[in-house]
Amino acid sequence: MIGVNKLEWMYEQMVTARHYEERLREEYLEGKQPAFDISAGPIPGELHLAAGHEASAAGVCAHLRDEDTVTAPHRPHHVAIAKGVDLKRMTAEIFGRKTGLSKGKGGHMHLFDPDVNFACSGIIAQGVPPAVGAALSAQKRNEDSVAVAFLGEGAIDQGGFFESLNLASVHDLPVVFVVEDNEWAISMPKERVTDVENGAERAEGHHMPGERVDYDDAVAVYDAAEEAVMRARDGNGPTLLELQVHRRMGHFMGDPEGYRPDVDAELAHEHDSIERLEARMRDYDVDESELESIRERAEARVEEAIEWAKEQPEPDPEEAYEDVFSNPASGAVEGGER
Ligand SMILES: Cc1ncc(C[n+]2csc(CCOP(=O)(O)OP(=O)(O)O)c2C)c(N)n1
Ligand SMILES: [Mg+2]
Fold first, then answer.
1. Coil/strand/helix, residue 21
2. Closest ligand 1 atom number to CA of residue 126
3. Measured from the CB, is residue 186 less than 6 Å from ligand 1?
4. How far, rounded to the nearest angstrom, does the alpha carbon of residue 51 sit from its chain's CA centroid?
5. What number does the ligand 1 atom closest to the CA of 184 have?
C-alpha cells in the first residue's frame, strides 16, 4: 500500500506542474493578443499544456530513478517535472534562452536532459522506439534500469508504436508504454479513429500485460505502474498501460476549441486529478496545513524558475547552426558542399 511520503511526493509534482502551466499560459499570452500572433511575446511558437494530465506522470515517475529513461510527446511538462528535469534550465529552454537545456534551440516540445535521461519530441509516437532502444541497451548491459514511453491515445495507431510493442515483447525488454487517453487528438475524438475503446487491449496482440486506469486517479496509477515497473526491472518484460486523463485546456494555447462540446470541457474540469488526490490524502490524515505548505513550496519553485529564465541571455544568432547537425560535413554550416 502506498505510504504518506509517496502521496506527498506525487502531490508536490502535480501542484508544481499545474502551477507551472498556469504561469506559462500567462507568460505565453503576453503580447499575442488581440489578434493571435504566434511569434509574439516571451514564448514564441506553439505551446501544448498538460493541465489535467498530472496524475499520469506523478503515479508513474514515483517508481523511477535518474538512470531510468523517459520519453514524452509534445505535451511534456508534467512528465519532465516528475522525472526531475532541471526546472530552471527547462524554463529557459521554453523561453528560448541560451542557458536552456538545448541552448534555446529546442523549445517546449524538444526538452532534453541527459542528467535524468529525459527526452521529448513534437513528432507523434516518436519517443516510443527510442525508449525501446534504451530498454534494449539496459538489457544488453545487464543493468536493471527501465524505460518508459509516454504517448497520447492519438498515437496508438502509428506503425512505430506497433513495431515497438512487438520488439519489446519478443525480447522481453524492460519497458513500460504509458498511453495518456484524453479522448482527443487535436480536434479528433478517439472513437472516430481507433477500433478499441480501451487502448490497453493492444497489449493482447503482443502477449504482454495491459491495464487501463480510469478517473485521473494518481493512486490507482501508482499501483498499476508499480507492478509494471517492477516487472520490467525484474527482467520479466514490457507492459502497456492506458491512463484516463483530461485535457483542461485547448490542444495548444490559442486553440478556439470550436469542435469541442461545452459539456466535454466542463467534464474535464470536474475530473480534477489534484482534487481527487487531496481527498485521498485526507483519508490518510494529511492535514490542510501540510497540503498548503506543499503548494507554497511548489509555487515558490515555479516563480523562481520563471524569474531566472527571463533574466537569461538570448542565443547569439551566429550560433544558430551549432549543435544542430550531429556531424556536419565541412562547409555544411557555411552553406558549402556536403
Ligand atoms: C507523426 C505526426 N503526425 C501528426 C502530427 C500533428 N499532431 C500534433 S499533436 C497531434 C495529436 C496528438 O494527439 P494525442 O497523441 O492524443 O496527444 P494529445 O495532444 O491529446 O496529448 C497531431 C496529429 C505530429 N506532430 N506528428
Ligand atoms: Mg489525446
1. helix
2. 1
3. yes
4. 11
5. 20
CB-ligand 1 contact for 185 (6 Å cutoff): yes
DSSP string, 201-265: GGGGGGTS-EEEE-TT-HHHHHHHHHHHHHHHHTT---EEEEEE----S-SSTT---TTS-HHHH
Q: Is the CB of 121 under 6 A from ligand 1?
A: no
Give dist(CA 324, CA 333) in Å, integer: 10
Task: Give the span between the Cα atoms of 335 and 165, in whole angstroms.
Answer: 41
Mutate to test the pocket of ligand 1, among 49, 56, 74 (most ligand atoms within 8 A of CB): 74
Delineate the domains of the chain, giving CATH numbers in brackets: 4-312 (3.40.50.970)
Atom number, ligand 1, closest to the C-alpha of residue 53 = 21
- The alpha-carbon radius of gyration of the chain (Å, integer) is 20
What is this structure's pTM?
0.96
> Can you say whether residue 87 is alpha, beta or left, with left for phi > 0 and alpha for psi between -120 and 50 degrees?
alpha
Q: Give the integer Cα–Cα distance in Å for 180 and 287.
A: 30
Whose alpha carbon is nearest atom 17 of ligand 1? 152
What is the CA 274 to chain-centroid distance, rounded?
Answer: 17
Query: Could you tell me where the beta strands, DSSP code E, fall in 53-105?
Result: 69-72
**pLDDT by residue (tens digit) across 121-140?**
999 999 999 999 999 999 99
Q: Is the CB of 78 under 6 A from ligand 1?
A: no
3 state SS of 24: helix
pLDDT tens, residue by residue, 244-262: 999 999 999 999 999 999 9
